[in-house]
Amino acid sequence: MRLAVLLSGVALYSALYAVVPLLPLLERLHGAPPGAAGPGMGLPLLLLVLLSPLVPRLPWPGGALLGGGLLLVGLGGALGAFSPSLPLWTLCRLLQGVGAALVPTLAIALVPVLYPQRALEMAGLYMAGNVLGGGLGRVLAGLLAEGLGVRGALFLLSLPALLLGLLVLRAPAGLPPLGRPRYDPRAFPLYAVGSILLFLNLFLANLLPYRLLEWGYGPGEVGLVYLAYLFGIPGSALSGVLARRFGAVATFRLAFLLVLLGLGLLLLPPPLLVLGFVLQMAALFTAQSLASGAAGRRGAGVSGTYVASFYLGGTLAGLLYPFFLHSFPLAVGVGMGLAVLAFLLAPVR
């Protein structure tokens, strides 16, 4: 069951983010204008914001919640793949949002309980799995869409979450209880940084396919650009080692200096734009591993609120990116301002 917790992020994020490189194609499939899929990106994350703090208070075993959440994510993705209209696809994305709210809150809080002697390192490994899922979902979606179309790609990438959810539900009592949740308003800087982390991740990642398609890139090539997410795997996996050697705050701030450098490179044409995206993703996931680890060590209440704040940033990214479709440099400037704020806060002690 411990392995299922670590793998939950792979299955969750491959299903949840597979649609990102396909957004323009999905809109064309349903005859919708550019940016019309924005609510389908932002509203599921809003459900994560609203529901995540409540998850630790639910009376069911952790295994049942984790398995049920993965099952809903997979089911929503599979139904949405064959939705006849964009509004119905958005409703299926809401189902995914309900399921997704159950997964990261529990996983972040369970990692230090399951691995008390290696909490920093295993938090980084869990985050590396999240990166792997999100990266593979985006990359494979673009490649699969070339041969199977948008619907086939989204359906296939929903299956891992559905199958892992069924597997976990077969033994829901295999995970330890987390105890009564505690909520700490003094962790506000940690919550603010959580919002910034996912906003920076999704805001620019959602804008990138539009910019690349303008330059003549095909769907498969756009999907391959999202291999940049895989560079978050070493960034996440090494975060615990670096934090033990140099300190969590110093490692966090170094990561955000690299984020700022990557954002600057996004203003340049390929291949420097791609290099900037790679650097941004690697550094963001280093910082994210440290922040989620700090939240997990404070218990389920703080981890639930952190997850809510994290996805509040993602919600805002999904709702706001359509307004920047023709203002990419301004979007990069917004990202730089938020990165400087996160650098100054560094709430990972």
TrEMBL record:
InterPro entries: MFS, MFS_trans_sf. GO terms for molecular function: transmembrane transporter activity. It is found in: Cell membrane. Pfam families: MFS_1. One of its GO terms (cellular component) is plasma membrane. It is a multi-pass membrane protein. Keywords: Cell membrane, Membrane, Transmembrane, Transmembrane helix, Transport. The chain crosses the membrane at residues 34-51, 63-82, 94-115, 122-144, 150-169, 190-212, 224-243, 250-268, 306-324, 330-348. Belongs to the major facilitator superfamily. This is Inner membrane transport protein YnfM. The gene is ynfM.
